[in-house]
Design a protein that fits this description.
234 residues, alpha/beta, 4-stranded parallel sheet, two-stranded antiparallel ribbon, 8 strands
Length: 234
């Protein structure tokens, strides 16, 4: 019995290494003291072997074509202001710059099909006074949009922060309360040089950009209101 045990163990080891002809799992047993004890190990199932020269490729996965989301309707503001009326409120403080911004706005309105008779200009003391006048103009029903132009330059006190905060929130409130676009064309700069750069200097003219924004916003609102898809002003 003790002589045959090593042969049995060797044969079963060959089965584990894949040299045995049978592919069925085998349980390795040892002969100890005339008894057979199972080790609890079983041989793994053999993996398929491709023939020489065969190439393997991943099976193709069937996918359905993706469909993009299509909007029921798309609206875009036009870049022509023909037939519309606009108002501009300008702060007189820092008028060295605000005059340049105003000129840029008027030129842009003309470039987009309006004459200067279609644009009213109102001067106020400074940027802090822009919201109340702009809101009153917007609520009058005489304008399709209003542009608020001003310049605030940082100084040595916190006055700058108060004026900027009041002008920003005030212009926004004038627009949302009236339902008429009131466009923020106020420069808030650290230096006068920065302001001049944005009033026709190397950064362009923000007054002209505000005018273009007014035309496009007023145009898209007219389209929506014509189809009953936007609330009316006031």
């Amino acid at each position: 019995m003790q002589r045959t045990a090593p042969r049995r163990i060797a044969a079963q080891s060959r089965a584990l290494s894949g040299n045995a002809p049978s592919a069925a799992p085998l349980v390795v047993q040892r002969a100890v003291g005339g008894r057979r004890l199972s080790t609890g190990l079983s041989s793994p199932a053999p993996s398929p072997v491709s023939p020489p020269g065969a190439s393997w490729s991943r099976p193709a996965v069937q996918t359905s074509p993706r469909r993009g989301i299509e909007a029921r309707a798309t609206y875009r503001g036009k870049v022509t202001g023909t037939g519309m009326k606009f108002g501009i409120v300008v702060g007189r403080f820092n008028d060295l710059v605000t005059k340049l911004l105003l000129e840029g706005a008027l030129e842009d309105f003309e470039r987009h099909g309006l004459s200067r008779e279609d644009v009213d200009v109102v001067w106020v003391p400074g940027s802090f006074e822009l919201p109340v006048v702009a809101k009153s103009m917007a609520k009058s029903g005489a304008y399709d949009a209003v542009v608020a132009i001003g310049v605030v330059v940082r100084g040595a006190t916190t006055h700058y922060d108060a004026v900027v905060s009041g002008a920003t929130s005030g212009v926004l409130g004038a627009s949302t309360d009236s339902g008429v676009p009131v466009i923020f064309g106020v420069l808030t700069c650290d230096t006068m040089e920065q302001a001049l750069d944005r009033a026709g200097g190397k950064v362009g003219n923000k007054g002209g950009e505000a005018a273009a924004t007014a035309i496009e916003t007023a145009s898209v609102l007219k389209q929506l209101r014509a189809e009953g898809k936007a609330a009316g002003p006031f």
